[in-house]
Structure formats: structure tokens, C-alpha cells
């Protein structure tokens, strides 16, 4: 999946906000955005806030908010034009990155929505987030603790900084620095779906070190919510974080934790560890005093890939 450095804005047919029918909310595609290292790039989609949803009585300061949602997708999902060219992807076009961005825009109408495309799609199917976490070709991760030079937090911060600059957003976060590098009012909601949850898991492993680093702690403190949506990957374990030491750090971080699952992942007898790990993830967080929100969706339906994708709309 080779990218060309470019930025485009589009409102292709069928991708307008279904609520307003208006092209005001435009999707902006940013290609080859550099992260913490110039050689590590990801393509981004940016959906700006729905200005029609703002009331006429709001102050200008409220209109130019600096709240952001970042989404990490799963396998098969890609830009619509690329999915349409692949037999396995064409049948799931309603879950393309563009469509997901618009769905998230309806869920979070007052925020900037960023969709991060995995830097590699092995066989046009398997998402690999190796810019965020060491992974094999199928995207199965090898988690590691925080490093002051490299990691998921470093890469995300730099991606957002460069993406905000390309989009000419006011008060962009700086790629590095202390408290004065994080603009006032800046906040992050992180959403991982399926394979994309490996990025959130890596951040949990990095959390203790990142919170202790004065050059990263203020960026980390801007994370208000983390959503795990039906996490899964091809490895035989570590689908959900179960390490008590790192979960204790997450529980004490003040981040609101959300776990939404479907029978497709947590009730599959061929991958029984996924359900066990999910239960242990919730139980351990609760033991440490956290109150994660949790829900099993579509429990009365047969497990299917369709219901797996539908959790993106239902969470």
C-alpha cells in the first residue's frame, strides 16, 4: 500500500452526512502523513465538526473547539476506492474508512474525527499497525513498554500534529514538548475496532512510562476516553490486556474505559481465549477501582462478520 504525499478534500456521492444531507462536513484525505520519524507514515481521513449542529447562541470560542476522536480500523477496511477493487473488500463497502468516518461524525458531531489507515494491508486484507506497535505481517502485535524515542503515543502525537497543520486547524498540538506544547482545551477520544485495538493495547503498556515522562505526560492526560470495539487479531493471546500491573495503571489514569463486544469475537469456541481475556480485562479493572462501561451487543443473533462491523454504529 504505497502512498503519495498529498492532501485532498472530497464529498463523493453517497458519502454526505445522512442527517443534514449537506456537503458542509467534508472528508479530507491526507496521504503519507509523517509520524515521530519521517520514514514512518500513515494516511489519514479528517472529518471536521458539523457546524450545522452548533447553535447560533454559542460563543466563538466554543465553535473552534479542539476536541478530537481518533479511530483505528480493522482488517479488510480501507479507502472505498481500494476496497471496491478487491473481491473480498467489495462486499463490505458500507464499512469503508470514509463511511466509518461519517458514522463517527454522527456519533461525535462536535469533534474532529480522524481515521488512521494502517500503514500496511497484507494481501489487501490484514491491517498492520507496525508504526505503533511491533507486529508480524498479519498484524499480530508484540507489545512493549514505553520508550522515550518510539512508540504508539509518540507516533500518534506526531501524526496529529502534522495532520492538524495540513488541515490548517487552529492551535495544533506540537509533535514534542511539555505542557506548553499542548493547546488549551485539547482532548482525545481513542477508538479501536477489531485489529485496531492493538494500538490501544500498546498504549496501555506504555501508560506508566508515558505518564512519568514530562515531555509526554500532558499529551497522555488529554486522553479522556478509550473505546475497545470487539478487539481481535490473529495471535493466540493478548487480544485483551490482562497484565495486572499495566491494568492497574490504566485504572488509576482517570481515562473513561469502554468495552463493546459481539459474539463474533468473545463467543467463538475456536478462539475461546478471546472471551476469557475480555472477561479478565473487565474483572481486573473493576478490582482496581475502575468502572469500565461494557456491553455485549447482538447476543441473541448468530455470530457474524456483519454484526462484528455493526458494533461501530451501535457502541
From TrEMBL:
CC terms in the record's Gene Ontology section: mitochondrion
Bias-annotated ranges (Polar residues): 1-11
Disordered as annotated region, ranges: 1-47
Cross-referenced InterPro entries: C2orf69_mit
Superkingdom as given in the UniProt entry: Eukaryota
A matching Pfam family: C2orf69
Protein name: Mitochondrial protein C2orf69 homolog
Organism: Cottoperca gobio (Frogmouth)
Lineage: Eukaryota, Metazoa, Chordata, Craniata, Vertebrata
